[in-house]
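Subject: Re: docking follow-up (S-adenosylmethionine)

Dear J.,

Thanks for your patience while I sorted out the input files. As discussed at Tuesday's group meeting, I've set up the holo structure prediction with S-adenosylmethionine included as the bound ligand rather than trying to dock it afterwards. The sequence and the ligand SMILES I used are pasted below, so you can double-check that they match what you have on your end before we go further.
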Amino acid sequence: MSDTRTLMSATVAQDLDTIKGWFNASDRRMFARILERQARLGELGDVVELGCYLGKSAVLIGDYLRPGETFTVLDLFESDAPDAENSVEMQRSYSTLTQAAFERNYLRFHPDLPVVVKAPSSAIVDHVAPASCRFIHIDASHLYEHVATDVDSACKLLRPDGIVVFDDFRAEHTPGVACAVWEAVLNKGLQPICLTESKLYGTWGDAGGVRADLEAWLSHDPFGFVETQRVAGHPMLRAKVRLAPAPAVAHPSAPKPAAPIPEPHPRTGLRRIAKDWLPPVVHARIAAARRR
Ligand SMILES: C[S@@+](CC[C@H](N)C(=O)[O-])C[C@H]1O[C@@H](n2cnc3c(N)ncnc32)[C@H](O)[C@@H]1O
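The structure tokens for the complex came back this morning:
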């Protein structure tokens, strides 16, 4: 598809923040690091997001898609939720969402849409092949029954070293996610890699390589914090990282950086003589009068 529009950039914080959503600094940088590492290692595979809302995280994921890979996003959008509790969740938090709004946002950043599926998250296994994915972001319903099903879908769809990310695994208002995620760690073989303020990153393959890469990066990044914790015998990183400052060549829509604060002029002429020769108390009174 040929396209002459100037697209916005997901790596410019101000651009991505034009999309309403929940995707904090630590997770933006973690996603970028993990997806970049997969590219560096030549790991190919499809990518899935369950629960895309208006596209904030999908837009960033879409930056890391390579030729031949398919990005599938799934959301209920305006359709009915599969049960009453999920309906309440939709009414409370996402009542104005439309598929058209997601697509408009996505196309401000990318020339082509991902595959968009309008369905409950359990349907993802009907649209994506088993063992085909390298990265899955689970951010649809936050109710236990749904997330537990999403865990099983991710396990089925991921390639051996593929990575799954769970949103809101520890928030006070989402105990169902916490329950499903820790159940996956204790009973379903999920290996935790890392946790941030909002998300838990894991794999059903080898967690050691990616964990070591993240630890090395975060312990040297001036905006990063990392420590290792053990939970039920599983080592995992606890990580935080802020957005890096804007790149030297700013995107045209980025606000202009503040002008540097000028160096104070060296004192010259009469003021310097007054400072050097008048008694301090007299000089201080004159300076205060000038300031007034
Ligand atoms: C927290 S939002 C996703 C936020 C998005 N990932 C971001 O970073 O901005 C959750 C989304 O899940 C969708 N959703 C809720 N229940 C669902 C279900 N059972 N199946 C599929 N999507 C669902 C909602 O419509 C909403 O768009």
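A couple of observations from a first look. The chain is about 40% helix and 20% strand. Residues 249-270, 272-277 have pLDDT under 50 and may be disordered.

Let me know if you'd like me to rerun anything.

Best regards,
T.
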